[in-house]
Every structure is written in structure tokens, then in C-alpha cells.
Design goal:
The complex is a heterodimer of chains A (422) and B (466). Chain A has three domains: 83 residues, Beta Barrel (OB fold (Dihydrolipoamide Acetyltransferase, E2P)), CATH 2.40.50; 69 residues, no CATH class; 218 residues, Chloramphenicol Acetyltransferase. Chain A is built from nine helices and 19 strands. In chain A, the strands form five sheets. In chain A, strands 9, 12, 15, 16, 17, 18 and 19 form a seven-stranded mixed sheet that branches. Chain A has a four-stranded antiparallel sheet with strand order 1-8-6-3, with no helix packed on it. A four-stranded antiparallel sheet of chain A has the order 5-4-2-7, with no helix packed on it. The radius of gyration of chain A is 28 Å and the shape is extended. The termini of chain B are far apart. In chain B, the strands form five sheets. In chain B, strands 1, 2, 3, 4, 5, 6 and 17 form a seven-stranded mixed sheet that branches. Chain B folds into three domains: 215 residues, FAD/NAD(P)-binding domain (3-Layer(bba) Sandwich), CATH 3.50.50.60; 112 residues, FAD/NAD(P)-binding domain (3-Layer(bba) Sandwich), CATH 3.50.50; 114 residues, FAD/NAD-linked reductase, C-terminal dimerisation domain (Enolase-like, domain 1, 2-Layer Sandwich). Chain B is globular, with a radius of gyration of 23 Å. The chains are: A alpha+beta (422), B alpha/beta (466). Chains A and B meet through α1 and α2 of A and α13 of B.
């Protein structure tokens, strides 16, 4: 076995962070082939393979900090490309939940296999029965305490480990699994309860909301926008607009356009985290949340930067209708880069929307309410709307989030900025 | 002359102990009272009996099986003197081999009866009466065992013989009466039956081969009976007299009662062996022995007297040469500061009849007594391809495995070459193997060992060839 160690990184640099492994355990490697990227304050370097062979188990995962000289992993020298039938698919070390599940009743993944494959078939210390059991159950024999000669794992040891694994519930994200058993209500209350099973849709919505909350470092920043300019514009042109474009001039179009403008300036809000990568998207598909009887659905208006306000309004109207009819197609709800949710239609003044995973930002619109505001030293009554931006702080920093919201506010308060791209 | 180690006795226990100690850098002396090295095993036990068993088996095969294979010889003729010479040459080669090993390992040898004269002191009395004293930091008693006597039957090694005499008979007895259906009785009884004797075996217990798996013994007894040996179980011999030129043995039921007289030309007394410690001066040296005459030792083979150790047939445990050898190695390693160890759970036991019997680990009787839940996998040699063509279909392999963990607890083989086949089982059990591990190990085809693999498969009820 050849050791892969952290090389000297430069004077006064004592440690580095693992940026990314280019190879997974079990992959064949050639000598000098780059295996892993290490990041320090000063420099990012690649660590080459010290020998040809097969990469063994990795000692330090992506994101971990390692000192100079530390063991990163080992290479089993001299072996060819393994024709292994190791069953365990090697998941990314920090792979999170399935982030592309549309709102359909996607089946949960089968019982997750451990990340490291079971011992390779040519390891002479593994008894044949142990090898078979490890392959069939996914339990890594190297994690099982061995009672055989010199600590070898026997068939009996594996069977005990299998029993233990069966007894301990595995952390599969079943909707019901993690729920505590509810203490029964006292009998006269219980008589007045009605137990209704959650619809599939609601279960999926519930799950995705929790996933979004658990995954992102989510928080909300607020601002307020003086809607008088937009309202003035609407009043002035709504009839003409409807006559020409065949659709009512609402507020959504303005907000979508305002968001697109702000997203162009703050691309992080339009981006997505994938493992340790950031995916910046140079397209603007805005999801517009629609409340239906069955629950909240988010049809996506695509290419909002290339569509006119009228087109956007048309699409929103059409999608909203079909959402309430339940005839939206799955594809129409996928692929969004940013979402707008309007709680104001129900009367909400302020709220903290939950991200529509895997997006990194969601704008909450609220009720337009006339309020006294201070303008140039005087009290004026203006139609004000509170704006909320919930964002993923892992990818969007505070300054960006605040700036985004300020831009949206700026553009809405002075629509001329649309024209002038300001 | 001062040594690190003095070994008294050059049988399998003694000579192996001496050689191991020499390998580990000790200055070693061996004391041997007999003219040749090798003790009982090489001179009047394992080696000569195996030579006769081999020769007699071939003699029988040539008379019965060769014809079937198209080898036309007619009835073979026996030249007993030549067969004995063949046996003697085998013995000679072996004992000379031990002498060579002593020389190679620079071990000094002293001919004579050894007596412990004091702590670290051994007095060697030669056959001519002269004595010399040698000193050693440690003394290992490896004096082995002797034939057990039977009350009422006087061994003269002419017509009433022990195994020693049975190995050197000058003519094939017409009728051989074997007292004791243990390993030695059955092996030597087989030899003479093949060479033409009528063999009757009298056994005190209600079964043959005490200690072995009872099912194995029942099946094996049937095989021997098919070969022509007559058994009188639950019987004892209370006396043997000379009557004319025949011997008359009085045989009674073991529980007592009226006896019968059985004539024989030769009577073999094979009722066991007892530790041999004569002339060692154990009492004066203060070395304690138990009520069976065995030297009492602790887990490191140390006696109650510091610096004095004992191994092999002289102490408790199975009276087997390989057990003595392993103990010899363990003592030598302990003395050299290492940790020698003998795994008494994995000592194979072999009976060199045809078919052979070989066992390692627990019998079904032992497992039942201990209340251990176990599974059985059995495979007969009639279903083994190689055995079929070799005309060696007698016997079977039986594997006993823990019902819960599948760990192999015992393996019992009745069949040709069982003594060699048992080695695989011993290795597997040393490593705590499950029957599945044996089943998943590739065994060459076509060999008899495939029966071991199939028996392992049979534990899981998935034998292929049955």
C-alpha cells in the first residue's frame, strides 16, 4: 500500500482544507494522476498519486482540514482496473437529499448503503461467508468487531452485526419514521377529533419544506417598497394594456421583472449549491407560487428576462388557472431559478417564506397597505408593501441579500429604471 | 557440562522439544535409555504399525481389487519376514532421521536412563552401569508411556503380546484375540486379519473406540465386521491360559456372570497405555503425580518443582504423538521467553485402519452433553466421483456446526485417506471457520476432499452431489 499524504504547502502554511477528491475509493489511478485538491489561504494545489494502483479508503473527506504530512488515503499498488461487483454505489460524501424531486410522489430511496464499498474480493483476511454476507447486506466487514483468530471477523460476528443493524432503525427519510408516537388525547377530546390522512401532495409538500429548512442556512431579510409609482402606472395604462395584450395588468409582472433585474446584479441569489459546487445560472425562470385547494404549487415562467411584461402576465394568468384546475404539467413546475410568493392576497403583512429547494432565494410579497411614512421630513400616506427575501446564507451573503432587496425596491419605486437598466 | 535444557526422552515430545529449543538458541541435551531415538512412536508404535498397515493393505488390495481393475496376478503370497524387514527399514530410516536432526541442531545426546538427581541435575546411567551427571537450567520430562497391563493376563511378548510383540510376530496367527477395541487393537487386528488371521475383538464397553463420535463408531464397526472381524462388546477377559499349543481366554460379560472360553493362537493386550516415569526419581525430587501416575503440570507445563517441566504421554491429555510434539514446542518457546500455546480443541485423532477414521473437534455426544444446538452435514463417499473410481466408497464425512453461528464445532471422516483430509478441517477450525467457509473454498476435482466440501454444503442442506 502506498500512502497519500499532505505535501508541504508553503512556508508557514501548516494545514489545508480538502477541496475535492477527483477519485473515489475503488477507482484505478495512474502514478502522478491528480487525486485530490487541497485549499489553503494562499494557494490551491493538487496532490498526485504516489503510485499506480487502486485507490483504497479515503482517510479525509471533502471539507475536512488536514495538517501537512497527514494521511489522506492509500493506494493498493499494482492492481489493474478492478472488475469488482461491489454493490454499494459510492455516494458523494456530503450528498444531501434528492433535490430534484418535483412535486410528484417520488418513492424514497432504498435503504441507503454505506459509502465505503465492502472489502475487496481479494482481501485474504475475509472469510468467504463474511464476504458473501457483506456483499448481500452492505455491512462493511471492517466495521464489525471480530472474534476469530487474530481478531478476524467470523460468520457469527457478521450475523450478530446484521441483527444489530436490523434492530436499530436506519435513518431513511420516511415521512412517518421519525415521527414520535403521539400521546393519545384525553377521551372526551379524542371523541371530537377527526383523523384525516394527508394527501400525497401534501405529504410531498411537507417533506420538501422540511428538506429545504434542514438543508439551507435559511434566514430572511426585510425591506419595504412604496408601491405608488407602480400603482400610478397601472391606473394610467391598465385599459390600454388589456386592450392591446388581452390580459390584465397586474402587479406580478412588475415584480417578476424587478426580480430579474436584481438577479442579474446579484447572481448568487439565482444560483444553486450542488455538493461543494455553486451553479450560477444565466437564465431566469421565475416560479410564481399559486395557492390551490390542494395546496401551494409553483408553476415556473421561463426566460423571464426575454419575455415582455405582457407575456409574463399572460403566462402567470394561464398557469394560475391551470394550477387551480389541477392540469399543470410536471415540467411546468420544474427548473425554476427563483420564486416569488405573494402572501398579500390573503392579507399577510410580513412573513418569512421558505425556500423552494434547490433555489437560493425566494421573494415574499405582502399586502399593500396605506401607511404613514416619512418623506423629506414630512408624513405622507403611501401604499406600502413589506418585502421579504428568504435566502440560503451558504451561497448568498448578507450584503448580497440586502442589496438584492434594495434593487427590487428601487426598480419598483422608480419604474423608469427598468427602461434605463438601472 | 551445563545446558540450558535437558530433555529426558527422545520420543516425539522429547525430540521436537529439543530441536525447537535449539532453534531458539538454547544449549540442549537429550537423554535416551533405548538404543535408538524416537521413543515408542518411532520404534514400537506409530511408525512400525503404519508400515505394517500399509503393506498389509496393499497385500489385501492386490488379492481382492487388482483383478477388478484388470491386473491379473492371482493370489499374492506373503513373505512375512520380508514384510517385517520392510517395516524395520522404515523404522530405521526414521530413527536415523532423528539422530541426524540432533546433530544438525547441535544437540548433545546421552545414552542411558535419566534420573533427576536434584534441581537442575540429571544423572544418566548407561546400560553398562556407568553414570554421568549433567546440569541444566531446565529439565523436561518426556518419558512417554508404557503398555497398560490387564489383571489376569500376563504379557510374555511371545504369544500373549502387547502392541510391541504384535509388531514382530514371526508367523501369521490363525486366530488372534484382541483385548480392547481401541485404536491400537483395531489397527493391529486389521493388520493380521489382512494377512490371514481370524480376528476376534473383546471390548469391555458397549462400543468400540471410546471417546470418538458414537455414530462414527457404530458405522465403522459394521465396516470392520464386513471385513471379517468379530466383536464381543460389553465383555471382559478375566484370564488367559496355555492349553496345549493354544491359548484359552476366559471371556465374561462386563457386568459379570458366566464366562466362555475362546481359543486363540495369539492374544493381543491393547487395553490402553499408562505414563512411564520409572527411574526418573520423581518422588525424591518432589515432583507430584496424580493417581493415574501422570505428572501434574500447570498451563505452562511446569511441575511443582521449579525448573522441571513435563509433556506428552507423561502428563494428562490425549496420548497422541502430535499432542506431545506441540507441547514440546510450547515448552521450548516458553523457556525462550515466548508464549507457546497448544490448542487442545483442535487436535486431530486418527485411526489408521481401512477405511481410516479421523476426527477433530467435538463429537455429537459431546455436543449433546453440553446442550449445544448444532446442525449436521453428512456426505457419503459413495457419492464422491473419485472414491467411486478408486473403489474406495466406504465411509462418509460428517461436519457439525453451531446452529446459530454456523461455526464448525467438529469434523468426523470415515474413509480412505481420512487422516490426511482432516488437516483441512483442523486449519479451518483454528481460524474459527463457519461450515459455509469450507463450502465456499474451492476444492480440487476429482479428489476425495470434495466430500468435505459437500458435507459443508449439506450443513445448509444444499449439497450438490447428493
Amino acid at each position: 500500500m502506498a500512502d497519500i499524504r499532505v505535501p508541504t504547502l508553503g512556508e508557514s502554511v501548516t494545514e489545508a482544507t480538502i477541496g475535492k477528491w477527483f477519485k473515489k475509493p475503488g477507482d484505478p489511478v495512474a502514478v502522478d494522476e491528480p487525486l485530490v485538491e487541497l485549499e489553503t489561504d494562499k494557494v490551491t494545489i493538487e496532490v498526485p498519486a504516489p503510485a499506480a494502483g487502486v485507490l483504497g479508503d479515503i482517510a479525509a473527506k471533502d471539507g475536512e482540514t488536514v495538517a501537512v504530512g497527514a494521511l489522506l488515503g492509500q493506494i493498493k499498488e499494482g492492481e489493474g482496473a478492478p472488475g469488482k461487483s461491489t454493490p454499494a454505489p459510492l455516494g458523494r460524501p456530503d450528498q444531501k437529499t434528492d433535490t430534484t424531486a418535483p412535486i410528484n410522489a417520488a418513492e424514497e430511496e432504498p435503504r441507503p448503503r454505506p459509502e465505503t464499498a465492502s472489502k475487496p474480493a481479494d482481501d485474504a483476511r475475509v472469510a468467504p461467508s463474511v464476504r458473501r454476507l457483506a456483499a448481500e447486506t452492505g455491512i462493511d466487514a471492517s466495521t464489525v468487531p471480530g472474534s476469530g483468530k487474530d481478531g478476524r471477523v467470523t460468520k457469527g460476528d457478521m450475523m450478530a452485526a446484521i441483527e444489530r443493524a436490523a434492530a436499530a432503525p436506519t435513518p431513511v427519510a420516511q415521512p412517518a419514521a421519525a415521527v414520535q408516537v403521539r400521546a393519545p388525547s384525553p377521551s372526551d377530546d379524542a371523541a371530537r377529533e377527526e383523523r384525516v390522512k394527508m394527501t400525497r401532495l401534501r405529504q410531498t409538500i411537507a417533506r420538501r419544506l422540511k428538506e429545504a429548512q434542514s438543508t439551507a442556512a435559511m434566514l430572511t431579510t426585510f425591506n419595504e417598497v412604496d408601491m405608488s409609482a407602480v400603482m400610478h402606472l397601472r391606473n394610467q395604462y391598465k385599459e390600454l394594456f388589456e386592450k392591446k395584450h388581452g390580459v390584465k395588468l397586474g402587479f406580478m409582472g412588475f415584480f417578476v421583472k424587478a426580480c430579474v433585474q436584481a438577479l442579474k446584479e446579484i447572481p448568487a441569489v439565482n444560483a444553486e449549491i450542488d455538493g461543494t459546487d455553486l451553479i450560477y445560472k444565466n437564465y431566469y425562470h421565475i416560479g410564481v407560487a399559486v395557492g390551490t385547494e390542494k395546496g401551494l404549487v409553483v408553476p415556473v415562467v421561463r426566460e423571464c428576462d426575454r419575455k415582455s411584461l405582457a407575456q409574463i402576465e399572460k403566462e402567470i394568468a394561464d398557469m394560475g388557472r391551470r394550477a387551480r384546475e389541477g392540469t399543470l404539467k410536471i415540467e411546468e413546475m420544474q427548473g425554476g431559478t427563483f420564486t416569488i410568493s405573494n402572501g398579500g392576497v390573503y392579507g399577510s403583512l410580513m412573513s418569512t417564506p421558505i425556500l423552494n429547494a434547490p433555489q437560493s432565494g425566494i421573494l415574499g410579497m405582502h399586502k399593500i397597505q396605506e401607511r404613514p411614512v416619512a418623506i423629506a421630513g414630512k408624513v405622507e400616506i403611501r401604499p406600502m408593501m413589506y418585502l421579504a427575501l428568504s435566502y440560503d446564507h451558504r451561497i448568498v451573503d448578507g450584503r448580497e441579500a440586502v442589496t438584492f432587496l434594495v434593487r427590487v425596491k428601487d426598480v419598483l419605486e422608480d419604474p423608469a429604471r427598468f427602461l434605463l437598466d438601472l | 557440562m551445563s545446558y540450558d535444557l535437558i530433555v529426558i526422552g527422545s520420543g516425539p515430545g522429547g525430540y521436537v522439544c529439543a530441536i525447537r529449543a535449539a532453534q531458539l538458541g538454547m544449549k540442549v541435551a537429550v537423554v535416551e535409555k533405548d538404543k535408538t531415538f524416537g521413543g515408542t512412536c518411532l520404534n514400537v508404535g506409530c511408525i512400525p504399525s503404519k508400515a505394517l498397515l500399509h503393506a498389509s493393505e496393499l497385500f489385501e488390495e492386490s488379492g481382492h481389487l487388482f483383478d477388478k481393475m484388470g491386473i491379473k496376478l492371482g493370489q499374492p503370497k506373503l513373505d512375512l519376514a520380508a514384510m517385517m524387514k520392510f517395516k524395520d527399514e522404515g523404522v530405521d530410516g526414521n530413527v536415523k532421521g532423528v539422530a541426524f536432526l540432533f546433530k544438525k541442531n547441535k544437540i548433545d545426546t546421552f545414552a542411558g536412563l535419566g534420573r533427576i538427581a536434584g534441581p537442575g541435575k540429571v544423572e544418566v546411567k548407561a546400560a553398562d552401569g556407568t553414570s554421568q551427571a549433567i546440569e541444566g537450567k531446565a529439565i523436561v520430562i518426556a518419558t512417554g508411556s508404557d503398555v497398560a497391563r490387564l489383571r489376569g493376563v500376563e504379557i510374555d511378548e511371545e504369544r500373549i503380546v502387547s502392541s510391541t510383540g504384535a509388531l514382530v510376530l514371526d508367523k501369521v496367527p490363525q486366530r488372534l484375540l484382541v483385548i480392547g477395541a481401541g485404536v491400537i487393537g483395531l489397527e493391529l487386528g486389521s493388520v493380521w486379519r489382512r494377512l490371514g488371521s481370524e480376528v476376534i475383538v473383546v471390548e469391555f464397553l458397549d462400543r468400540i473406540l471410546p471417546g470418538l463420535d458414537s455414530e462414527v463408531c457404530r458405522q465403522f464397526q459394521r465396516l470392520l465386521e464386513k471385513q471379517g472381524i468379530t466383536f464381543k462388546l460389553s465383555s471382559k477377559v478375566t484370564g488367559v491360559e496355555l492349553s496345549g499349543n493354544k491359548l484359552k481366554a476366559t471371556v465374561e460379560p462386563a457386568a459379570g456372570g458366566a464366562g466362555e472360553a475362546i481359543d486363540a493362537d495369539v492374544v493381543l493386550v491393547s487395553v490402553g497405555r499408562v505414563p512411564f516415569t520409572e527411574g526418573l526419581g520423581l518422588e525424591e525430587a518432589g515432583v507430584k503425580t496424580d493417581n493415574k501416575g501422570r505428572v501434574i503440570v500447570d498451563a505452562r507445563y511446569a511441575t511443582n518443582v521449579p525448573g522441571i517441566y513435563a509433556i506428552g504421554d507423561a502428563i494428562a491429555g490425549p496420548m497422541l504423538a502430535h499432542k506431545a510434539q506441540d507441547e514440546g514446542v510450547a515448552v521450548a518457546e516458553n523457556l525462550a521467553g515466548r508464549s507457546g500455546h497448544v490448542n487442545y480443541d483442535v487436535i486431530p485423532n486418527v485411526v489408521y485402519t481401512y477405511p481410516e477414521i479421523a476426527s477433530v473437534g467435538k463429537s455429537e455426544d459431546e455436543l449433546k452433553q453440553a446442550g449445544t444446538a448444532y446442525k449436521i452435514g453428512k456426505f457419503p463417499f459413495t457419492a464422491n466421483g473419485r472414491a467411486k473410481v478408486n473403489l474406495q466408497t466406504e465411509g462418509f464425512v460428517k461436519i457439525l456446526a453451531d446452529a446459530n453461528t454456523d461455526r464448525v464445532l467438529g469434523v468426523h471422516i470415515v474413509g480412505a485417506d481420512a487422516g490426511n483430509m482432516i488437516a483441512e478441517a483442523a486449519v479451518a477450525m483454528e481460524f474459527g471457520a463457519a461450515s459455509e467457509d469450507i463450502a465456499r473454498t474451492c476444492h480440487a476435482h476429482p479428489t476425495l476432499t470434495e466430500a468435505v466440501k459437500e458435507a459443508a454444503l449439506a450443513v445448509d442442506k444444499r449439497a450438490i452431489h447428493m
